[in-house]
Amino acid sequence: MKEARMRRILALLAVLFCAVPAFAQDKTALAVEQDQSAPVNVVYHIDDAAAQALKALRNMRNHLDVAPKTKIVVVTHGDGVDFLFDGARDPKSNIEYGALISALKAQGVRFEVCQITMKRRNLSKARFVMEADFTPSGVVRIAELQFREHYAYIKP
């Protein structure tokens, strides 16, 4: 008798366990469906300019071509800040980043430089393009954007 009761309880738990994710998915799908017109907020994370910068700038341009209402914040730290130096160029193609940055800034993209990196590398604000903004900590800023402001995360 105890064994039969235990089987029924386990069967009920199995049904509930399977139903909860399905219910949650339906609810999530409904929320996404209802909010299709709302702009998406995105944080692009760059910590290696040589490997990521040109690709990221092109991704952002394409992103805004398709979804112009998207709010984009680029957070840089470590070696990722290098493409925001005044006059910086892509090491492979020799393309200057400045014009690409200016065009994206004109579309509302925000470029943020980690001040911890600046201090560690002894960099002054004067070294950066005029489009650059500054944040106390790049890693903290990314976490805040993702958690508090619900930004989607992209690392090109």
Shape: globular
Q: What is the first-to-last residue Cα distance?
A: 60 Å
**How much strand content do the residues show?**
15-25%
Summarize the amount of helix as a percent range. Answer: 40-55%
Query: Could you give the order of the helices and strands?
Result: HEHEHEHEHE
Care to count the β-strands?
5
If strands are numbered along the chain, what order do they take across the biggest sheet? 4-3-2-1-5
Mean pLDDT, to the nearest integer, reads: 87
Largest sheet: 5 strands, parallel
Main structural class? alpha/beta
Which assembly state applies to the chains in this document? single chain
Question: Residue ranges: pLDDT <50 for 5 or more in a row?
Answer: none
Write structural notes for this entry.
With 156 residues, the chain is an alpha/beta fold. Helices cover 49% and strands 19% of the residues. It has five helices and five strands; from the N terminus they run H-E-H-E-H-E-H-E-H-E. The protein has helices at 2-34, 49-66, 98-106, 115-121, 138-147, and strands spanning 41-48, 71-79, 110-114, 132-135, 152-154.
